[in-house]
User: Fold FAD-binding monooxygenase from Couchioplanes caeruleus subsp. caeruleus.
Amino acid sequence: MTDDSVLVVGGGIAGLALSRALRQRGVPASVAERSATPASGGLAINLPGNAVSALAALGLRDGLESLGRPVRRREYRGARGRLLFAVDEDAFWDSEARPRCVRRVDLLALLDDGPEALASRRSSTVESVRLKQSGAEVAFDDGGTEPHGFVAGADGVHSVVRATVFGGEGVRTAVLSTASWRFMAPNPGIDCWTVWTGPTGVILLIPVDGDEVYGYASATGGGSVGADPGWLHTTFRGFAAPIPEVVDMVLRQPESLYHSPVEEVRISEWSRGRCVLLGDAAHATAPVWAQGAALAMEDAIVLADLLAGGDWDTVGARYEEHRRDRVTHVQAMTDRFSRLAGVPPWIRDLVTPVMGPRSYRATYGPLRRPVSTGG
Assistant:
């Protein structure tokens, strides 16, 4: 590559979405990804309506329809199974942006489809990025360096690009919980997105197809989540069916379990010179509203539009101008609902039937507006 090209650092959802959007617009780019194969720790992913709209903008609507299962309804329940409130997602988003749950590896393959995508990828680890007047000098783990006209850091929560260009980590523990457990399990009869919240834990099950559900479990009120799988049994044994049965099933197959910290990134700037951050590298947020992939793909579309328009010296500032308000809205609504989940159960179960639907509409309402660089 030459110094008139874009280097995308990171081959996850944000990086692959940006690479695809740049190819659509004829902007030369390459993707540097240290892992030879996609990470599977996320297992599956819930795509709310704005994520589905972003995939359509990337030309992937038809491909998405062949993956996973649509999410037509949400149910929020107490630990004993009482329905606190429900949302008709079909009615809220309509059929053009119907939410969907898919396996993460399938989504990555969808974004990475085609010979042009393969040709633009390289198995390399970026060790540092040094800004220059007309771009950046990028150092790799093999000792080599390359000039690039623009660098996009899509390398996740612990971003090397953020650390070497912007300084400091900017990482914090989420308000909701310190860590989470994720898993796939046989479907016990769940037919919609369903979450149960108890005194110290919250657990979510979403059908991925007719046979399996994706599960996500964490603490509430910033509580700790033990790295020993026994935490799941201790926390959820008193919950209503089918939660204890599902937990018992996954504990008999510990290889299906994935434990990870729940970390957020809150920083004051996402751009400096001809370098920007996108996705989790810029604004990782606890998955309360399932906005990680959605915001990352929106970032990619906006950034690609701006890069295709030229004047790369001002792209960073314009990118932040277009994206900051939307991301800040999601962060604020994430913190608000996380605090609600952490109040004493009797208060939470009393106010959630009223506050829950309001929070859902207040969060997702503005996100129904498509992203744009116009006006």
About this structure: The mean pLDDT is 92. The first helix runs from residue 13 to 24.
